[in-house]
Design brief:
about 375 residues, globular, alpha/beta, 14 strands, single chain, four-stranded antiparallel beta sheet
Length: about 375
């Protein structure tokens, strides 16, 4: 299904988030060759950055934590004609550049450079990372946010501009941010909501220490656990923003149903981050196919039929929910990831035992065939394997 997004026609509604597997033209080309409807670069800075020390990422079945420190090859790399050519290849997909400068001046300089580079479809300005030491994240500081958008508006840039926002947790903050963004609706074509949930902490039960090294173990939370937060961002901003401003939903998306939910809440298009990181670019093929199947089952032919059409709670809906959950495969009520880990460990143990038994049988057969079965030697060899 085609989607009109910030003045562009996209052949789909799912593409990659900035961050995982987006640092080089080789990685971006794999995105372009998948069913992702667009290509978005790593968040760039003026100069190349190596990022934070390792380990800086941690993944589990339900969530991920990272404190990468914006490793990237610099803005000049991502707007270089060869990089764009190698990334897009013959896919013809729009190529967006994400930027996250260390200061507003850095962002202004990068935006000016981008607009001089042919082949760029739009700019995603990351206002969800701290840029000034001793100050909050720009989009959490309403004074900074207004100042940043005022500066961007003064540039009169020819490309669509989107801003990436952090998650908000108080309705008054949604309202204040939306009011400021609406003031610049002629400049801001879309918002991307949301960035990771900042400054979370996970401790290893084995070592008693954080699972990542930078910042004392604090990092941004992403993955399936943040989907309810992301849905709330999309829904609330769809209620508050001027209709001319498109919404990109991102956070916890790993299935076609997740995409469907995002669009129900008002997203125009949807980004995939952590799932892309874990599964690779093939995730876009799977997710898009799942989404298309859900649309077929629900008789949806155009996305406008469902966009922003989230139903209000009702007794009838609650009954349908109960009925649907009863038909779902049952899982352990306790243990969660620990239960799954136990199953994985048990499966590995059974496989290991099977392999050992097979080796024993093969050794006996081989010894018989050679006519000199040395039972003590075989037993000693197997004891060594088990050890």
């Amino acid at each position: 299904m085609q989607v009109q997004f910030c003045g562009l026609t996209l052949n789909g509604c799912v593409y990659n988030a900035s961050g995982p597997r987006t640092g080089s033209s080789d990685a971006l080309a794999k995105v372009g060759s998948s069913k992702s409807c667009a290509i978005l670069t790593k968040s760039a800075t003026l100069l190349p950055q190596n990022g934070n020390p390792l380990p800086r990422t941690y993944t589990s079945p339900n969530f991920s934590i990272n404190s990468e420190g914006l490793p990237n090859k610099s803005i000049d790399y991502y707007i270089d004609s060869e990089t764009i050519k190698e990334s897009v290849l013959d896919s013809g997909k729009p190529y967006f550049v994400s930027i996250s400068g260390k200061s507003l001046d850095d962002n202004v300089e990068m935006m000016k450079r981008i607009c001089k580079a042919p082949g760029v479809a739009g700019i995603e300005l990351n206002l969800a990372c701290p840029n000034v030491i001793g100050h909050p994240i720009i989009a959490y500081d309403m004074v900074q946010l207004r100042s940043a958008l005022k500066t961007v508006a003064s540039l009169s840039l020819p490309l669509p501009i989107g801003i990436k926002l952090p998650p908000y947790f108080d309705f008054i903050h949604y309202q204040k941010a939306a009011e400021i963004i609406n003031e610049y609706k002629s400049t801001i074509s879309y918002i991307v909501t949301m960035n990771t949930v900042g400054n979370t902490l996970m401790i290893s039960p084995h070592s008693g220490s954080p699972v990542i090294s930078p910042k004392g173990g604090y990092g941004g939370l992403s993955g399936p656990a943040v989907k309810p937060i992301a849905l709330a961002q999309v829904r609330k901003f769809s209620e508050l923003l001027d209709p001319s401003i498109d919404i990109v939903g991102v956070g916890g998306v790993q299935s076609g149903q997740d995409v469907y939910d995002m669009i129900l809440c008002g997203a125009k298009v949807v980004q995939v981050g952590t799932c892309h990181w874990i599964e690779g670019p093939k995730c876009f093929d799977r997710i898009v196919e799942e989404f298309e199947e859900i649309c077929r089952k629900n008789g949806v032919k155009e996305l406008e039929e469902i966009r922003g059409k989230l139903k209000e709670w009702s007794k009838k809906g609650a009954a349908l929910d109960r009925q649907g959950r009863k038909s779902e495969p049952k899982t352990s009520a306790k243990g969660g990831a620990k239960f799954q880990s136990t199953l994985d460990d048990s499966s590995f143990l059974l496989l290991s035992v099977a392999v050992v038994v097979m080796i024993q049988v093969l050794l006996v057969l081989l010894a018989q065939a050679l006519g000199h079965l040395d039972v003590p030697a075989v037993a000693q060899f197997m004891d060594n394997l088990k050890a």
